[in-house]
Amino acid sequence: MDLPEKRICVTGGAGFLGSFLVETLRARGCRDIFVPRRREYDLTAGDAVDRLFADASPQVIFHLAATVGGIGANQDNPGRFFYENAMMGMLMIEAARRHRVEKIIVAGSVCSYPKLAAVPLREPSLWEGFPEETNAPYGIAKKAVLMQCQAYRRQYGTNAVFLLLGNLYGPRDHFDLATSHVIPAIIRKSVEARDRSADHIVCWGDGSPTREFLYAADAAEALALAAERYDGEEPVNLGTGEEISIRELTGRIVRMCGYRGEIRWDCSKPNGQPRRSLDISRAEREFGFRATTSLEDGLRRTIQWYETSRAKVHPRA
């Protein structure tokens, strides 16, 4: 697919991952990019989705818009996270079918994998069990959208591609401790503790779970490559294939932030899924994607961005 010749819509294009994708598309020569904002287009409402398609007339859609957060946010909002993610995905794909969109690329999540699936997580194991309980509503909503993509392809010929993204991080991430994921949360805690000369920070769980982290700019490149080169019905993992424990990750971040205090683990808080690391061979085989940003470099860039931007990110910190 020659993306620069297409009218493109990026839902969530003003958000964290979406902003990187819009930059990636523009670097490829794409100029006709429509980014809907929630205040104008509530994608959980059918009439708003219809208005979006009437206004943008997209030929290609990247559906990234999502209601997301860390473990705490998932625990506090299971109904909202299920409803909004399922509705946005289903309404967008149904509208794409009715308007004969050439292609829709849908961002899924590693949270959809079964809690105890064998590591590395391979795409065929997606249906072999129930997701980890704290984020199951979100993960199952995303799996329902995957099923819709596959069903619509078989019945209507809708070219819907579904990508399973690993844990994302990078500049422009969300650093609100009530909703943030692990990397921005640790960065914020470390920087603020350093500046206050606090003697300790508190982290959730016992530090034993493992995760895999994908730099947002690499994820954006993968999305663009999938749009250009992949037309299959099977979901595809996007990650690095590199696994790290939360305890090791935390130690690395606090050192990079220049914090020298104690790390205390609050074992009354949930750990989340025990292990997460992806088999990334399908992405490389099908559309030539391999992440290029090391965790060390990605963390350094994220910390630097936060240090220079935190007054704007949360002025009352």
CATH hierarchy, class of the domain at 3-172 and 213-242 and 275-292: Alpha Beta
CATH H-level superfamily title of the domain at 3-172 and 213-242 and 275-292: NAD(P)-binding Rossmann-like Domain
Q: Quaternary state, please?
A: single chain
User: Radius of gyration, rounded?
Assistant: 19 Å
What is the CATH architecture annotation of the domain at 3-172 and 213-242 and 275-292?
3-Layer(aba) Sandwich
The helix fraction, in percent, is: 40-55%
- Topology order in helix (H) and strand (E) letters: EHEHEHHEHEEHEEEHEEHEHH
Computed structural class: alpha/beta
First-to-last CA distance: 45 Å
Strand order of the largest sheet: 2-1-3-4-5-10
What does the overall shape look like? globular
Number of strands: 12
**Major pleated sheet:** 6 strands, parallel
What is the tally of helical segments? 10
| Mean pLDDT across every amino acid position | 96
Low-confidence stretches: none
Give the percentage of residues in beta strands: 5-15%
Here the CATH topology of the domain at 3-172 and 213-242 and 275-292 equals Rossmann fold
